[in-house]
Amino acid sequence: MDKFFNPSQASSLWQLWEQGANNHPDAIALHDPHAKPPVRISYRDAFEQINAFGAGLRALGVNFGDKVALIADNSPRWLIADQGILAIGAANATRSSQAERSELLYIIEHSDSVAIVVENLATLKKLEPELHTLPVRQIILLSDETPPEGAYNFQQIITKGLGLDLGNPPIQRDTLATLIYTSGTTARPKGVMLTHGNFLFEIEGAQAVLKLKVSEKVLSILPTWHSYERTFEYFIFSQGCTQIYTNLRTIKKDLREHKPDYMVAVPRLWESIYEGVQKQFREQPNSKQRLVDFFLKASQKYITAKRVIQGLNVANLSPSLGDKLKASVIVLSLWAVHKLGHKLVYQKVREATGGNFKYIVSGGGSIAEHLEDFYEIVGIEILGGYGLTETSPITHVRRPNRNIRGGDGQPLIKTETRIVDISSRADLPVGQQGLVLIRGPQVMQGYYKNPEATAKAIDPQGWFDTGDLGYVSPWNDLIITGRAKDTIVLSNGENIEPQPIEDACIRSNYIDQVVLVGQDQKQLGLLIVPNLSALEAAGLIAPDSNLADILPALNDPKIRSLYREEINREVQNRPGYSVNDRIGVFEFLPEPFTIDNGFLTQTFKIRRNIVFERYQDIIVKMFTA
């Protein structure tokens, strides 16, 4: 029988690796097939490298309670450095090496880092010359490049630490482990203080939801310094799993080749995989397209009816006997069609993802209803969840035995949820929308050196203000409905939550990305990044067209009429549609939202304020033309 790490009896994350090395020393912990040469590190070797890295830092004068800036991206060495820093009781301040230079310098200075661990020489050069004005005593490269005088590379630190001890640091559950800096889209980024205890509790909570097996494979693509990916990684390592590193360029190949059992990602990635499948469908002969469409529509009715029977329909969590009988008739009549669709169509989709997925996990934002439907139809189970960086991040997660699509799950153990009136903070009854407050062992210590922001976020009773709107079902399911600060208020006083309407719009094959606008206007407007491959397949634009070049052509009446029909259909067909949801005006944007152009965060969330700022002229014109 597999032996697993027990986080409830631990005081530090170091013990996770100690027990992993003892319980399954030869199991592979870290596998990077894209490194040159490829990297495979066992639990025994990972533990030895973690200890050597930590001892090497200690030999350089990094002590318990010190801060170390860790500026790098996904790799086994990131994990070794992260855990090595924590093993001596120091804390790391993490960020991507791709982040803006000014932001990285701010983080190094604000975090009081006495040392920095950076991706490579290029990252180090990016920080100069200002870096030399900061009180940084040590510089370490994660690469094997020759470091500048007085600095060290990864192998040199490992060599320095071999044979040395970690100094028996007095790490407790309340010892600071990391500072994770928020994106800083509206102000200076804030350093979220998370402890060893925060992460240990998250591991304990996740273990109560899923039981994994030693050597099961998990594909990793999200930024490893982000709390969502980082916590999930700690959890899978507590179970003896193998983490396989991938990236956006190789993910399709890696899915087929490595056949992962689990994967955690954000909605944008699941949408990208879905769109790739849809593109393949569109490239089929018309007869096959009609067949695929027939099966998908039949299966949509089948899974919707099945959810009603199981009480898993978020719009009807307490179905009547009549509802269940009606749904049963649909399930019985479509069961054979759904199974045939699986054999002829859906199985091929599963094979494209490796064919071994037990569960995929979606978080970091709400996942659109049509994506939930699609993955359920093809037999890939999504477990959604909810949380924020400030809550380490998981507070709620859907269980395998209560997987309510469209919901955000039930609370982890020892986690409390309150729904309050956004103005009075009075508690609201079950089922009524309000501001979501969270209290539990996963809530951060606070914002580093920012007591005012901490007091604003966490009240004296320990309730954390998430800033999100939602409600709780009679069965304690949390359903997030929007972001309080994202709410659009029309001139008639109607409050509109943009996310559900945006999710409805991107169901259209012709729409890639959207942002809803309309604050203080009489009607809503939509900024659209069109799906060029769908327009090409329809013969409306030339192959290999560039969005910026064809933007004027998209104003052709035929194309605008198509988009008007698509928008109206999808918005009006969404559950809960009201006349105020109607999109009055829309415009096309000259480029997609990406991380590189600043419109997306590292976890693929749209930075709305950046969109509003850069396209203010388009927005104004939309409502004044």
From TrEMBL:
AMP-dependent synthetase/ligase domain residues: 18-448
**Taxonomy, superkingdom:** Bacteria
Alphabetically ordered keywords of this record = Ligase
Q: Does the keyword Glycosyltransferase apply?
A: no
Do you know which Gene3D superfamilies this protein is assigned to?
Answer: N-terminal domain of ligase-like
A Pfam match: AMP-binding
The protein's name is Long-chain-fatty-acid--CoA ligase
SUPFAM superfamilies (alphabetical): Acetyl-CoA synthetase-like
Q: What is its EC number?
A: 6.2.1.3
State the Gene Ontology terms under molecular function. Answer: long-chain fatty acid [acyl-carrier-protein] ligase activity; long-chain fatty acid-CoA ligase activity
Q: Name one GO biological process term.
A: fatty acid elongation
